[in-house]
Amino acid sequence: MIIRSKKGKILFVLHAHLPYVHHPDYENFMEERWLFEALTETYIPLIKIFKSLEKDKIPFKLTISFSPTLMEMLNLNDLREKYHKYLLNLIELTEKEIIRTKAEDHKTYHLAEHYRQELIEDLDIFYEEYNQNILKAFKEFKDKGYIEVITSNGTHGYLPFYRDYPEAIRAQIKSAVLTFKKYFGEYPIGMWLAECAYFKGLDKYLSDEDIRYFFLDTHGFTYADSKPRYGVYRPIITPNNVFVFARDPESSEQIWSSEVGYPGDSRYREFYRDIGYDREDDYIKPHIDPSGTRCNTGIKYYRITDKSLSLDKKEIYDLREARNAVKEHVKDFLCKKTSQIRKLSAILDEEETIIVAPFDAELFGHWWYEGPKFLEELFRQSYGSKYLDFSVPSEILQTVKKVQITYPGETSWGAGGYHDVWLNEKNDWIYKHIHEITERMKEKANIFKCPSSLQKRVLNQMMREVLLAQASDWPFIMTTGTTVEYAKNRVKCHINRFLDLDKMLEKRQVNEESLSFYEWIDDIFKNIDYTIFSSVQNKLIYLKLLHEGRIRTLPEKYFEIRWHARAGQGAKSASQFLTEAAEEAGKYSSSFPEYGAERSGAPMKAFNRIADVPIRIKSNIETPDVVVVIDDTLLKNPEVTSGLAEDKLLLVNTSRSIEEVRKLSGYKGRIGVIPATEIALEEIKRGIPNTVMIGALIRATDIVPLDAVKEKIKAAFSKKFSDEVVRANIRALERGYQEVKLSE
Question: Which residue range or ranges hold the Pyruvate/ketoisovalerate oxidoreductase catalytic domain (predicted)?
Fold first, then answer.
């Protein structure tokens, strides 16, 4: 018997992050070069390969996480201007190198010309094409459906170390969500936890902010409460309704491993041999830090050659050989992935194999010069493959029918797999102080209920300093022993600034000059709200007032919809689609599912809230305005109409009459019926009633303009389906709107 394996999916995930390094009081600051190098060697090269693939009509799918600190730095005008000068300076250096190497060696001469051309293209992309705003480029490719963009928590704080400070965790996640919305125009659906660090219960904070998925290292699944049946090759879902993807160890070894990974091939460029260290002082001085401290310029002429050789024994780098190596390695990688998928297909029964390959974005280009070309070649060679496709998490979640419910194990992706890198004898001294200011922040947020405008500025800046002190980068640097003094100074600096601001509040005497300086230099998260740190007390007050009947559970402007269906019938997708349409119509909206048993066909619920004001609540909907029933066999279950008042609406996908539905459900209020499945079969040739039900819902409630949903269908469906499919879905929507029967 021949077993035909299903196509596997590969999720390539890049995490782009840098700590917040901003020194506007200096014309040049060494550590700001971290951002400039990453722009030149990773972020802009990624844009280049995206443009190349799009030009050649090669489809590609990739997930990229931008940390909030990185997004904020990319938006600072002074850093943009400094980067512009940095590029011009490097171009000047390459021009000097072209003159110098022409008389020395034709190979280095051609490399110098190559670097000059690359830098001129970088300058054009950064300065001319995107007006110094490269996030705009990534948003464009996101909107075109090529990439999925997510974020990381606030300042990349190592969250397991703050499990006793829920306010700090909320602040880390909330600041990330708001920052992402600021730059990408919508809330993130996924989150890269800093250092992939997880502890049991962290997913509840993510769920509260409508985060639908995150990533972990392999052993997060290995040591889950219930061992995942399909290992790391299918997502799991936590009891708090957040999906989790885990890293495939084979893919990591093939690409990331310092011993056997592709980047160690002898033909690739040597990272540690740079003219910033090779050239004479007088020659190189205008192109390095003004202090004279030697540093990388990115102009490198040598290849790895042999890892055992000293740097002075390395051989000249050959671009052609390196490009051949890229093609060979991509072919090898795809061959290994194909073999892996075919083997796993026999084990995973009916389930689709999902291989998750997460990496630091800076591996591609900064550390591994040929990395961006590897990615480009990966999509080119895999185009049309019979065995694998590249995908993104949101596409996977749309097709999930069965999912195992469990908590993953506590983990990180650091050396040793747990917390040692961020807590050891080299850095443990910082946490006493960081926890102290975190506690003080909470106290001050609870004391100052109605601050003056000046006090509010102080409180918000105190919160910025707390979050910046919590960054995982500083203890990491202390462990690895790179720029240790800078890392120590940053932690001390943020702690001291916090204490200075705290003293101002204690004395009721604000030094506006100092406050303005702190706001200028730590210019991050302009929309920050210190009251996040008073959330526990606010919740207690809220519950007390609610119990006393002095407030309503929700503002009157919230419109709430509860969907009842069976897993696999599309209620979750319908709920999500309605939310997106509502947001495009200018409303605030949220959607989220609640799963019961993991098997296909089991009863499940999904929820929508739609409003004209921001939606602050995340709980399940108990007293809906509308209940939508996708499967009328659920009508006998009293849970379907639970909490549905008689002045609300029960909308059912059924061929039964209104009276039959009333008799089956026992509901005495307003009822709407529509044979949505039959209409869907007639119009779109598939028994998926979502579009028809949304049309009926709009007719019954007017909650979203019909035209807004039509435009959403065109925008969402035209990227993946033919014009006829788009028209068929619009017809189905219109028939739902026209043919629904509503009781008086």
Answer: 567-738
Q: Are 151 and 177 in contact (CB under 8 A)?
A: yes
Smallest Cα–Cα separation from 715: which of 135, 145, 141? 145
Q: Quick one: residue 568, left, alpha or beta (phi over 0 = left, psi -120 to 50 = alpha)?
A: left
Interior angle at CA 392, CA 222 and CA 573, nearest 5 = 100
568 annotated ligand-binding residue: no
Choose the most confident range, by mean pLDDT, from 479-488, 603-612, 716-725. Answer: 479-488
Cα separation, 509 vs 125, in Å, equals 48
Q: Where are the domains of the chain?
A: 1-74+134-269+320-422, 428-535, 559-742
247 is in an annotated binding site: yes
The neighbouring-strand residues paired with 592 are 607
Which two structure tokens, joined as six digits, stand for 392?
A: 């993104």
DSSP state letters, 506-545: HHT---HHHHHHHHHHT---TT--GGGGGHHHHHHHHHHH
Strands 670-674 and 741-742: antiparallel
Tokens linked to 532: 């996040």
474 is in an annotated binding site: no
How far does CA 128 lie from the centroid of its chain?
27
Q: Is 473 annotated as a binding residue?
A: yes
Catalytically annotated residues: 195, 360
Is residue 744 scored above 80 in pLDDT? Answer: no
CATH superfamily membership of 559-742: Pyruvate-ferredoxin oxidoreductase, PFOR, domain III (3.40.920.10)
List the one residue out of 556, 463, 489 whose CA is nearest residue 170: 463
Give the single-character DSSP code of 124. I
Look up the CATH architecture of domain 428-535: Up-down Bundle (1.20)
CATH homologous superfamily, domain 1-74+134-269+320-422? Glycoside hydrolase 38, N terminal domain (3.20.110.10)
